[in-house]
Amino acid sequence: MAQVLVFVDQVDGVVRKPSLELLAVARRLGEPVAVVVGAGAGGAAGVLGGHGAVRVLVSEASEFAELLVVPKVDALEAAVGVVSPVAVLLPSSGENKEVAARLAVRLGSGVLVDAVDVVAGEGGPVVVQSVFAAGFSVRSRVSRGVPVVTVKPNAAAVEEVAAAGAVEELAVVFGGGPAARVVSREARAVSGRPELTEAAVVVSGGRGVGGAEGFGVVEALADALGGAVGASRAAVDAGWYPHAGQVGQTGKSVSPQLYVANGISGAIQHRAGMQTSKTIVAVNKDAEAPIFDLVDFGVVGDLFKVLPQLTDEINHRKN
Amino acid sequence: MTLKIVVCVKYVPDASGEWGFSGDLTVDRVGVDGLLSELDEYAVEQALRVAEASGDAEVTVVTVGPDDARDAVRKALSMGADRGVHVEDGGVEGSDVMGTSLVLAAAVGKAGFDLVVCGMASTDGVAGVVPALLAERLGVAQVSLLSEVSVRDGVVRGRRDGDAASEVLEAGLPAVVSVTDQSGEARYPSFKGIMAAKKKPVESWDLDDLGVDAGSVGSAGAWTVVESVTERPARVAGTVVTDEGDGGLRLAEFLAGQKFI
């Protein structure tokens, strides 16, 4: 049976949803072999075995904390040597795309990033990407070397499948050349809300929110729906919301079950980051706003009247 | 020692125009209005700021692309870059990120560099992997997605605002950095800058000049194959109502019908 390497993101042994989704994607191509690195990596083995990983290759070396990207490339290169996989999959993130790119150069492999779907094909994995502000769907495959592919969150449903999850120590030679290092690190305040790119519901605010304090009604609605909070570039550039929450071409690209756009006109750069959402609703006082071309349901009105009424009604129905 | 800074820029289709694909499934770049990628303006800006702070630096702007791509170089020169390099060769057409980065790495190497500055991604492909590919090919460190950059004593340092943390990162030169759209508004070319740019040198190189084998780039040298391109069906227009005091309730009704409540 062909084996597929899956690079797993973990923090202190905790594995997030995109990595588990990736195991489900990998099972379409062969038997998943997880690669998990950094402090506490071994603690992830159980959950990985419970989601289809037949083997779990672990390295808890200190290099992963001290240096960026390159040690992870070294680890994956070592894992490829051990497993001879038919593909290498990574969760798509800024850092993992760098890891994938550098790995591909070393392996002499083609690389495809930001896949929204991956399926088995006769000539190897077929990778689906969404391009040009999500206006086109492109199907490609890697034609040389071991395919290296990064996959976006929500590309597949998490599947609980019991597998051996046999833990093996991965021997890594850290000789991959110069790397950037972390001088200092300041953790962000945790909102307690779901992570933006993984959330099933995203509630966003734009220029129409009018200021930082205006995001209060957006956050209240997000909390009523159990969703994440996003912002348009205009709101971020105005300093009303942190850049980490920006949805759009130069921010996060999201594909939730439900996207609620509030006070957002719907410029192409914003649409690029949310157009593939399953259901889209919008509240905007401008009836001509292009966002209304995308919606399943829209309300032309003052978001400071509509949102609190909606939030109250949701909370009322919940109780 | 003069600090040698190279900025990689891309000439991209204008986002407000019609984007599409040619019959051979490559991005249609013929007869499409293009411009210097907005995200690369930030790279030019940061390169100029680092150069100004160092007092002894040279900023070279490099692009790979068809004839029109020279416009992207000119724009960067009119912002203040010192010299330009335009790699143009029919053999490059149809390259994937592997081919593009191979050509770019050869051009950057030939130009000579201490620091390579890239934008966070192009506005057409948006893969965002070229900086990493360049770093691996050049055998140097990479410090990416920075919102602040500075160079001192042979070390490049910057701040990255990630989701979980804000980090200060550094690497010894030579290095590749990429900067985000949060790194600072790009300057507008002044009239003086535009006039001065006309006198600045722009070199034209082809694959032979770079010693790159034509078989390793372009469609023939690509390590990925596009099998099909499908235009997404436009979303079917939904219901839009005007709030008459019950807008929130009507929206709740819709969401309940969709099982979100």
Describe it.
- The complex is a heterodimer of chains A (319) and B (261).
- Chain A is of the alpha/beta class and 319 residues long.
- Chain A has 9 helices and 17 strands.
- In chain A, the strands form 3 sheets. Chain A has a 9-stranded mixed beta sheet with strand order 9-8-7-10-6-1-4-5-11, sandwiched between helices. In chain A, strands 14-13-15-16-17 form a 5-stranded parallel beta sheet.
- In chain A, helix 4 packs across helix 5 and helix 6 packs parallel to helix 9.
- In chain A, 58% of the residues are buried.
- The model of chain A has no long low-confidence stretch (mean pLDDT 95).
- By secondary structure, chain B is an alpha/beta fold.
- Chain B is built from 8 helices and 14 strands.
- Chain B has a 7-stranded parallel beta sheet with strand order 7-11-6-1-4-5-12, sandwiched between helices. Chain B has a 3-stranded antiparallel beta sheet with strand order 8-9-10. A two-stranded antiparallel sheet of chain B has the order 2-3.
- In chain B, helix 2 crosses helix 5 and helix 3 crosses helix 4.
- At the A-B interface, helix 5, strand 7, strand 8, strand 9 and strand 12 of A face helix 3, helix 4, strand 7, strand 10 and strand 13 of B.
